[in-house]
Amino acid sequence: MKPPRKDKCDCGILDRWSNEPDHPVRFDPALNEYFIASKSGGKYQIYYCPFCGGATPESRRSSLFAHVTDKEQQRIYSLFSGISTERQVIDKFGRPDEERQVGAMVMHPEKDGKPARGEAFRTLVYKNLSTVADICFNISDGGRARGTWIQKHIGNQDGQPSPRPYGSPEAGSPSGQA
Q1: What sign does the dihedral 145-147-152-153 (CA atoms) show?
Q2: Whole domain around residue 36: which residue ranges?
Q3: Residues of the chain above pLDDT 90, percent
Q4: Which of 64, 98, 123 delimits the end of a domain?
Q5: Are residues 101 and 139 in the same domain?
Q6: How do residues 111-131 score in pLDDT, each as one tens digit?
């Protein structure tokens, strides 16, 4: 039977699990988030306790990134105007601050009998066109450019350590218990 949803998890099971070295449930104190860690390095955030149905703690994730106002978003989108090729990007903004050979990936799921497929794009990154966002242009094999932006990382504001990987013995839960 599905547990009813509550405002807050109060059963403590996530905390207990996150303190077990061989359990995949972890707690990230910097983000104030519980997650399931896969052995391949993936992380799957937990929003509700599977035992009591209570919500997990409020995430601090947004505090790690700069805020992009609506006005700044509009200004950034105006930078993309009239740009459709890599040559136009470089002519307008010069050499990028960074070039990532695989900077973006897009997965297209199976649909209407057509198989799933994935695409990888080379990305040109400009770090000084905005104080709060990196401006990126994903470049297709044919040289077509598509503008995107990513909030700038402003770091861990409380100095908390990163969570331990799956299977490691160090503590990483809200209670700090080993």
Answers
A1: negative
A2: 13-64
A3: 71
A4: 64
A5: yes
A6: 999 999 999 999 999 999 999
DSSP-based three-state secondary structure for 45? strand
Count: domains in the chain? 2
Q: How many angstroms separate the CA atoms of 14 and 27, rounded?
A: 8
Interacting residues of 146 by C-beta distance below 8 A, sequence separation 6+: 121, 137, 138, 140
In residues, how long is the chain?
A: 178
Q: Residues 148, 138: contact at Cβ < 8 Å?
A: yes
Asked if residue 76 and residue 32 are part of one domain, the reply reads no
Residues 90 and 131 in one domain: yes
- What local confidence, expressed as pLDDT, does residue 40 receive? 86
Please, are residues 49 and 56 in contact by the beta-carbon 8 Å criterion?
yes
Q: Is 176 helix (H, G, I), strand (E, B) or coil?
A: coil
55 has which bridge partners?
48
Would you say residue 114 lies in a domain? yes
The residues of the chain scoring below 70 in pLDDT are 1-5, 156-178
Does residue 28 belong to any structural domain of this protein? yes
- Output the pLDDT for position 48: 94
